[in-house]
């Protein structure tokens, strides 16, 4: 069996919750794209990362069913694990930095896979939502405190791959931040925390806590 690390990304204030991420540090152990896809499906994480060059931060990202040019929580988790200033993804170069308990990445919203941003009237409505049938990728959100930028959100991938709900989704947070044009403090899933902040030249920072399981 190929060796891999399991991280929890976008943990809550007490270090709990977060979205699990598989990271294969020796990507050369699984060089073929088909083999990588098969391993990602077998592991069953919402995303699995293969590190092709740890010093340069070259990575390759897979869901259980498809390869992604960019994804938020894999980049945040891998940046923390490798402690590098940038990651090289098929979508582009992702800036990275560590700041106390938070790991931040800097990316462009157009790199994120498509998501349907669906606003609700209250956080309670979002919390009561049932998992929708397979179809579009839905990011359901509502203001908890608009003045403070606090958002309640849940992510529904809409795929038939066993991942009915994403506990924390950096790419969707990136898109929501671009849509609202402001910094956000997002509580997603069962208590994961994602922080975002617009930056110059169309870039957006996404940050969170990472733990090794």
From TrEMBL:
<dbReference type="InterPro" id="IPR003719">
    <property type="entry name" value="Phenazine_PhzF-like"/>
</dbReference>
<protein>
    <submittedName>
        <fullName>PhzF family phenazine biosynthesis protein</fullName>
    </submittedName>
</protein>
<dbReference type="Pfam" id="PF02567">
    <property type="entry name" value="PhzC-PhzF"/>
</dbReference>
């Amino acid at each position: 069996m190929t060796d891999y690390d399991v991280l929890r990304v976008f943990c809550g204030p007490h270090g709990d919750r977060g979205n699990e991420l598989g990271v294969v540090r020796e990507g050369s152990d699984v060089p073929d794209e088909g083999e990588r896809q098969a391993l990602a499906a077998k592991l069953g994480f919402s995303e699995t990362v293969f590190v092709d060059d740890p010093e340069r931060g070259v990575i390759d990202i897979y869901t259980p069913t498809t390869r992604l040019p960019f994804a938020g929580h894999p980049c945040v988790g891998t940046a923390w694990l490798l402690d590098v200033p940038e990651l090289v993804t098929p979508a582009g170069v992702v800036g990275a930095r560590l700041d106390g308990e938070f790991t931040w990445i800097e990316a462009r919203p157009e790199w994120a896979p498509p998501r349907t941003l669906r606003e609700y009237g209250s956080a309670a409505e979002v919390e009561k939502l049932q998992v929708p049938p397979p179809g579009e990728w839905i990011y359901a959100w509502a203001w908890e405190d608009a003045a403070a930028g606090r958002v309640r959100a849940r992510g529904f991938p809409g795929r038939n791959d066993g991942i009915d709900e994403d506990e924390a989704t950096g790419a969707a947070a990136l898109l929501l931040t671009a849509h609202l044009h402001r910094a956000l403090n997002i509580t997603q899933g069962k208590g994961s925390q994602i922080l975002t902040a617009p930056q110059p030249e169309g870039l957006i920072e996404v940050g969170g806590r990472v733990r090794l399981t």
